Each structure stands twice: as C-alpha cells, then as structure tokens.
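The authors assume throughout that readers already know how a fold can be written as discrete tokens. In essence, backbone conformation is discretised, so a fold becomes a row of integers matching the chain in length. A single example would do more here than another paragraph of explanation. For illustration, here is how one protein appears when written out as sequence plus structure tokens:

…
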Amino acid sequence: MFESLSEKLDLIFKKLKGRGLLKEEDVDAALKEIRLALLEADVNFKVVKDFIQHIREKAVGKEVLESLSPGQQVIKIVHDELCELLGSINHRIQLSPNPPTVIMMVGLHGSGKTTTSAKLARFFKKEGRRPMLVAADLQRPAAIDQLITLGKQLDIPVFYSKEIKDPVALCNDALKRSRLDGRDILILDTAGRLHIDEDLMSELRQVKENVKPKEVLLVADAMTGQDAVNMAKSFNEQINIDGIILTKMDGDARGGAALSIRKVTGMPIKFIGVGEKTDMLEPFYPDRIANRILGMGDVLTLIEQAQKSYDQKEAEKLHKRIMEDSFTFEDLRDQLKKIRGMGPLESLLGMISGMGKAIKDIKVDEREFIKIEAIISSMTPEERNNHNIINGSRRKRIALGSGTTVTDVNKLIKQYLEMRKMMKMFKGGMGKKGFRLPGMTPF
C-alpha cells in the first residue's frame, strides 16, 4: 500500500530534515518534488494543485521557517493535510434505529463487490450483529453461486432465487424474510456491469427507491486509479452514494484512488479491502493511512489485528505458562497459528514505524511457518508437552512424518529451547504492574 509514494516522500523529507534552517526556496523545491510524486502516484491533478497550495500557505510562515526543527514542522503540515484530504475522521456505517439496517452495495464487474459484501457481513457478525446477504445480481448467475458459497463458509444466511427475475421484488422479499428471521443487517449485492450504462443505473435507482436502504456503498477497485475516481463520481451523480469501499488496496503501490476519491466525490471512504480472505476488510482511518504513507507505521491497526486473534483468557493462560516455565511445543504451535491468522507477516511488520523500509527487500517465507507447524503436528501429545523425551529415534520419526529432515527437527528444538531461556530471563519482569527487564522499573 502506497509503497512507491512513501519511498519518494521519505527521500524528500530526508533533505528537509538535514537542513538546520529552511528558506522559502527550500520549501518551494520540496513542494515541487511532492507535487511530482503525487502526480506519479496517479493522484487527480486538481487535488494535487489544491493540496500543494494548502501546504505552501502553512509551511512558509515565520514560525515554521524559524523554528528549531523546520523540517519536522513541514512533515507535520503534510501529515495534517493528508488526513484532511483522506477525510479527517473514520466514518462508520449508520445503523437504522428500526432494524434491519439495509446496505446496498453497488459497483462494476471486477471491483470485488460480491466478495466485499461477504466481508462486510462477516465484519458485522464479529460485532455481534445478525447479518443476512441478498444475491440481487440477477444478471450474473455466477455471482449468486459465489455469494451462496461465501455465505456457507461464514455461516451467514443468503437470500436468493433463481426464478425471480425482478431485483426489486427479490429485495422486497428479502427484507420481509430478514424481519421474520430477526436479522438486523441486510446487505444487498446488486447487479454490476463492465461499464456504467443507463440500464444499470435505472435498475439501481428502482431498487433504492423501493427498498430505501440506510446506506448505498460503492465498491471500487483501488488499482484502477483515476478510472475508479471517475466511476465513483458518475455513480454519485446518478444514484447518490453514501460512502465508498476501496478494494485491492494491498496491491495498490501508488495510492492515487485513495488520495483523490473523497475530494472528487465528497463521499467518505468507509472501508478498505487489504487481501482476498474474508477477514481482510478494515475500517478506513485517515490518520492511520497518513501515518503509513509517511512511514510512521500504524500500531493501532496492528493492535486491533492482534486483539482479533487473542482473547483475555488465552493471554492470561499463556502468561501463566511462561511464569511457570511450562511453555510447550503445543503452546508454540497455537501462537504461530494466531500470528498467521493476523495476515501476511510483511503487512504486520509494515505497520511498525520504520519497519516498512527495513523489510523492503526481505521476503518472509510463510512456508517456514508451515514447516514448523508440520514438525510439531508430527509429534505425539506427550512429545509436544515434554520436549525432554524427544530422543534420536523420535526425531527421525518426527522428520519422516512431517516431510522434513532430522536437521530441520533439531533446528526447531534448538530454537524452542533458546526461546524458553529468553522467557526464563524475562520472567521476573512480567508481573501485574507490566513488563520489565530484570533490574528495571515497570512501565
């Protein structure tokens, strides 16, 4: 996400931070480079023009140019303007006081509308809601089958009919069913097209007028850049949308759509898709995205990802095992599964300030995690809970059962023992008042 833009801005800011005192011409030179970087990132020309003008008005003030750290001041101004450009605050989906809340999903073919509908339903289910999906894309039978499959995977009901040909009638029937079944969220996966046409817009307007959704959300492919922005503008002008979900953000190294779409349409980005899996949908926080663009990390999102994988009881149980020096291979396997469940490791590390650049050329081989899990799974329950009984013959059997070598098994056992040593060393610092190293005060 924003990789190429982040790299260019990092080089520009390094020059600014290296100067003791800034002159107006220094700011102008930096703004010229920022302007070029944004245009190369496929940001809308008018958006770039206004963005640079706002920064210049604030950055050439006397208090900035004569401050002790003018470079840092300029970076802060750019950060604040990025937040403003992206929408300032997180805009949540408005829930209806009289359930169900009807959410109408619109967009073109290929934008990921059907998958995103399922992701959104999963998001609400995790929040304790009772969502129902509606397969209202009657133009494409494959979309109906896809939504049914996703619904089964997520254990979320899907309302569909291969006999009804009128999407308005189908959505009205779905609304009645959702009320009977006590569903409080109804997500309509409506028809798409390869391009915007009057037939599509007429159908969407009819559905909107009859079902009266609380929110109309446009699903747009971030990787299409300004095409996504222009498409969003057209949808908003013709049917009035309430928000945008940008998909495929994990594959968008430039970021032009994300940085242009709110300014051009006036509509907020509410969610971003950051991967193909159904749990890879994130609420959109402008300040966190601005942090990522400027290489400041996104620790809050990282913490939220961790909280999804860990609950308080499990954390306390793990803490107790470490305190009692009884951390086993079983515990290690459980922790690895949770870490993998949080998403690609490169993405997680990229959320830590300064790590994005450090791991730029490093590819984390996820197969190593699979290999470790395979080795641990090949152990007997007794071996997983008591590493001391794993002798030479057992190591050969474990290697054979996991499709690895004895060297791989020996390496894992060695790493495990080193980990236990580290835990033992830090054990004294893991009291109720927080973590501390031996000899240090708690923090």
